[in-house]
Amino acid sequence: MRIALDAMGSDNHPGPELEAVVEASKRWGDPILLIGPEDLLKSSLANFQYDPKLIKVIHAPEVLQMTDSPARTAKGKAESSMAVGMDLLKSAEADAFVTAGNTGGAMANALFRLGRIRGVKRPALGTVFPVKDGQAILIDIGANADCRPIYLQQFAVLGAVYAEIILNKPDPRVGLVSNGEEAGKGNLLVKDTYPLLEKSGLNFVGNLEPKELFAGEADVAVTDGFTGNILVKTSEAVAKLLTNLIRTEITSSPISSVGGLLSRSAFRRVGVTLDPAEYGAAPLLGVQGLVFIGHGRSDTKALINAIRIAREAVEGDLMKALETAITSRL
Amino acid sequence: MRIALDAMGSDNHPGPELEAVVEASKRWGDPILLIGPEDLLKSSLANFQYDPKLIKVIHAPEVLQMTDSPARTAKGKAESSMAVGMDLLKSAEADAFVTAGNTGGAMANALFRLGRIRGVKRPALGTVFPVKDGQAILIDIGANADCRPIYLQQFAVLGAVYAEIILNKPDPRVGLVSNGEEAGKGNLLVKDTYPLLEKSGLNFVGNLEPKELFAGEADVAVTDGFTGNILVKTSEAVAKLLTNLIRTEITSSPISSVGGLLSRSAFRRVGVTLDPAEYGAAPLLGVQGLVFIGHGRSDTKALINAIRIAREAVEGDLMKALETAITSRL
């Protein structure tokens, strides 16, 4: 198995990427393709101990910037690490591609260079997140700000395959994110999507309010990319606000400071449960190749987790399962 | 000043309502109208010490149920405490009406019995919530699942007046909730609303991602009722998940238990900062009267806070300011 990693993706590239490939090559013993400016990567790798047979540097002189327009970079920057990674997937020289670069750029490059799975109208970005006693996938979290019911139906199919293969949930429960749990609640998009999911053959459990979603009442939560993005970013913002508030309050008096010190390991365990780095990267589902997009803030641990998930996707033949599901379900 | 309170609104009615009116009558010394079944309320009030000149029971034999269809109750249940409360506003026997009942029922009753402020296309529900170093109002959080740009522009005007009068923010900063902070980001609704807000004469600060919203970068956050509802409910769900996780982890070992005990007051202070009860009730803006809708879970404290805010709205002549703003801005 060959996983390709964009060396120039994360905010602190290529440090975390270098550490991640070195560690991943030791952990799994499979060759990894590291994509970026050859001179830079080779000289940086010289600082590490690793098996040179397992890390292959693929030259890509250009770097995608956050300010680059996604559409323009896909066509104009053919030698960016992002573009080269997609091309390696296309030519089957890599089995999966992991990048912590600009999400818009990754999507544009994937669409332009890989294309969609036959029958898929809009690829979507999923994210795995923690719920009570487990994990669920939320899809779409940002690829499509404006959606039609048929797109959401397809997101449900793609998300269900992912939940089955990567989250090990047979016959996953699919819910539709809404502002009320009763059937008939929702905006027009939700109301029109509901009957499509009811007759989709999926294990549809109806509308999901955020509280049900976090209570783990579905394995797949389907929504449009605007709402999904707001939902994910609100979760992150509230978790951060709350953590900061607790930290400020705890250090504000000597007694609660001691208390904070004594309960520190408990806080650390909560942090691990909620840490996005634990979940690695967001799968871009519906394109002709396995693409995983990590957060720009990804550190070494997050990238290793992303590589781990990409490996599981290759091992479970996620690509074939997605294609089959789209053909048979729609 | 006369505030009217729906005695049958909260999940545990009328207990919290009775305690709230008794306390409010002592605190402010103004008469309060308590609406519900007369016999029940009078016999229950007999258990309290209060000045009978300050609490006037208004008979309303019917009670709105959560299962009642909002539209039907507005027209069909003319003697519900909700309907009677709105009628008291209409006849100017009350200056503001507070209810912790069914939100849909309250909106339907307000629209049917009070009507809209002249020029307002859609009334909206706002909510005040905690941000870093202060408070902000988010509008709409559920009255209108599907919106047009002009509705959002009006929500901005209504929310800005509220922020100015109730949150004491002169020339409040208005932001548009979006999936990216750069101009041009968003779904079609956001993209079409942006230019309207730019030329609205309001202090428009552009798009707001949830992290900016919670960082306090705007005083008024404008969104459609579907997105706003998901945003509020996600905040509540994440705060609850995080609090439960911390509690579970802290009690899982003897050392962190002691730590949790010592830092308990810090947790309590964080709880107060985030407690919806601190913020009382959501204003329904754009109807011909001051209506405040509390959470079904409202307790005595939340209801007293709701009465306090309703009083501030009357004192600041919020109604007139809203009418003037709608006429002059649009």
Summarize this structure as a short list of keywords or feature phrases.
homodimer, 330 residues, alpha/beta, Isopropylmalate Dehydrogenase, 2 domains, eleven-stranded mixed beta sheet, 11 strands
State the oligomer: homodimer
Q: Give the topology string of chain A: H per helix, E per strand.
A: EHEHEHHEHEEHEHEHEHHHEEHH
So, CATH architecture of the largest domain in chain A?
A: 3-Layer(aba) Sandwich
So, the CATH homologous superfamily of the largest domain in chain A?
Isopropylmalate Dehydrogenase
Brief synopsis:
Two copies of one chain form a homodimer. Chain A has 330 residues and is α/β, with parallel strands linked by helices.
Describe the protein in words:
Two copies of one chain form a homodimer. The first copy, chain A, is α/β, with parallel strands linked by helices and 330 residues long. Helix content of chain A is 48%, strand content 17%. Chain A has two domains: 1-120 and 286-316, Isopropylmalate Dehydrogenase (3-Layer(aba) Sandwich); 125-276, 3-Layer(aba) Sandwich (Isopropylmalate Dehydrogenase). Chain A has 13 helices and eleven strands. Chain A has an eleven-stranded mixed beta sheet, with helices on both faces. Chain A is globular and about 60 Å long. Chain A starts with a strand and ends with a helix. The mean pLDDT of chain A is 91. The interface between A and B is large, with 56 and 56 residues.
